[in-house]
What we know:
The protein is of the alpha/beta class and about 375 residues long. It is about 25% helix and about 25% strand. The strands form 3 sheets. Strands 3, 5, 6, 9, 10, 17 and 18 form a 7-stranded mixed sheet that branches. A 6-stranded parallel sheet has the order 13-12-11-14-15-16, with helices on both faces. The chain has a 5-stranded mixed β-barrel with strand order 1-2-7-8-4. The chain is globular, with a radius of gyration of 20 Å. The chain binds nicotinamide-adenine-dinucleotide (NAD) and zinc ion (2 copies).
Amino acid sequence: MKVKAAITHEKGKLSIETVELAEPQAGEVRVRIVASGVCHTDSAGIEQLIPVALPAIFGHEGVGVVEDVGAGVAGLKKGDRVIMTFPSCGCCPHCLDGAPYACDDLNRLMFDGSYKDGTKRFSQNGTPVSSFFGQGAFAEYVVVDARNAVKVEIDDDEQLAYLCSLGCGVQTGAGAVLNRCNPKPGSTIAVFGCGGVGMSAIMAAKLAGCSQIFAVDVVPSRLEMARELGATHAVNGRECNAVEAIQKLSGGGVNFSIECSGLPMLAQQALGCLQREGLCVLVSVTGDAEVPIALEPMLMNKSATLAGLTEGGSNPQVFIPKLVKYFREGRLPVDKLVKFYKFDEIEQAFEDSHKGVTIKPILRF
Ligand SMILES: NC(=O)c1ccc[n+]([C@@H]2O[C@H](COP(=O)([O-])OP(=O)(O)OC[C@H]3O[C@@H](n4cnc5c(N)ncnc54)[C@H](O)[C@@H]3O)[C@@H](O)[C@H]2O)c1
Ligand SMILES: [Zn+2]
Ligand SMILES: [Zn+2]
């Protein structure tokens, strides 16, 4: 079928053009896109910092309605509302153990542009076109593996449109707290960087009953929003030494810290604000891997742990429905982060995301 999509032919560029979408193969579904989130990882692909084969269709936070189902798909049927998420193979030891975020084939399936069998579903004038994250959700329709389409109980498309980033950014921040830290009620936590990922970590920390939640950022409006979402303390890293402030206000450091800014300097701070036996989780993609983090005396003497985590340590078919339930109960108000754009305003959406004007831009189709 013919589909309109934002296609990238050369580094740094997007244009809305018509492409051809193949029928879903065995184990796959075709989804009509209702809305699609804009994430920094899309920019990294468009700018070729992640070398996805071009031409490519980016977008990996799609939500929509199942329109057609390939052979052998269990649990999804025409008309189901789905949130799409990261792909995984389903048959490596990590996938079989319920940890698809650590799938052995994760990098290829997310970034190489093709599906499990190595072929692509989009094409233009006979040339195969890559789908980012096995989605390519900057398009009116996509074909995805049924493993990365999660059926959700949502009444209408209007509500569904707010939930795009449950497939990536929210899952990443909330999952770091709920799946990896798993804080006991009364625990203390610091979140570095209050973008979509950090705000989700803050909401999850509140949900988990943390007694002190420190939000660290440099933008006053973001800190204000962080407080609204559950932070008990807002720390402006430009106005004070965040580590000293957190150490003092928490009476000797926090149990958990999450680094969500992508700045190596903040990873160092996140590690520095822990108390003994603390856990620091790095979820962001650091801009400069050459900047070293000093580990001593932060780790050994404190019996502390430094951990990395992709996609919030989530098993999406289990975790995303839980996040939807929290949203419906008003305990995960992700709608507060969202601003909608029309599909043809995609470049404006990226610009507002870069400038920090919008925390979570979402394209409506
Ligand atoms: N691990 C994963 O699976 C995964 C998934 C999605 C996104 N990410 C990554 O998570 C990171 C965050 O994503 P996002 O969408 O929330 O980004 P974002 O740009 O919206 O948020 C970053 C925040 O850090 C703040 N910041 C900048 N400089 C600061 C400083 N010196 N001190 C304190 N705060 C500062 C910014 O003001 C901003 O609010 C990115 O690196 C992204 O690539 C990772
Ligand atoms: Zn796997
Ligand atoms: Zn993302």
